[in-house]
Amino acid sequence: MAHIYTKTGDKGTTSLLGGTRVSKHHVRLECYGTADELNSHIGLIRDSMSDAKIIALLERIQHILFVVGSDLANEKSHKKNVPVLSHDEIVLIEQAIDEISQELPTLRNFILPGGHPLASYCHIARTVCRRLERLVSKLTEEVECNENTLIYINRLSDFLFVLARKVLKDFNKSEITWSPIL
């Protein structure tokens, strides 16, 4: 019987693609660990959706997040053969944002996360996506990364925002607009 545990990380280190061992709190691991966390949230959203087109797009996004994670774990000096995120994926997300935005009312106020559990899931995923964006931005100060990665993550957070708005519209729920309480 094969075991899922290897015991190689028991002392707080792990291997990057290429073999270099780094601490489990290394910025690369923070990045691809956050991509994995985001992927899990998107899986929850996908499993809660009924729109077949959106479900298919969310599954594609999950596959792309694996590409992002493998790229972030890859030490360029070792040239591991990993899939590369193409600009076409950015265009696909932008098209989805534009298509969804056309059916939504013009945004005139900040809105609060909430209004329906599925919309809240989208906002949670959006905030995890923004954290991933910050972490990848930090990583790019230290090592070379695929320039499409940061762009894709930025667009993905925008997509999750408009998806949350679409969910509220689809469930005939109102957006909760922010107003200063001061």
What would you note in describing this structure?
- The protein has helices spanning 27-48, 52-73, 87-102, 117-140, 147-170; strands at residues 13-15, 21-23, 111-112, 176-177.
- It is mainly α and 182 residues long.
- The protein has a single domain (22-74, 84-170), classed as Up-down Bundle (Hypothetical Protein Ta1238, Chain: A).
What is the count of structural domains? 1
| Overall helicity | 55-70%
Instruction: Please give the alpha-carbon distance between the first and last residues.
Output: 63 Å
Oligomer: single chain
The CATH C-level name is Mainly Alpha
Largest sheet: 2 strands, antiparallel
Mean pLDDT: 88
- The helix count comes to 5
Indicate the overall shape: elongated
List the uncertain runs: none
Q: Write down the CATH topology.
A: Hypothetical Protein Ta1238, Chain: A
What amount of the residues lies in strands? Answer: 5-15%
Q: What Rg, in angstroms, do the CA atoms define?
A: 18 Å
Biggest sheet, strands in spatial order?
1-2
Q: By CATH's scheme, which homologous superfamily applies?
A: Cobalamin adenosyltransferase-like
Output the structural class: mainly alpha
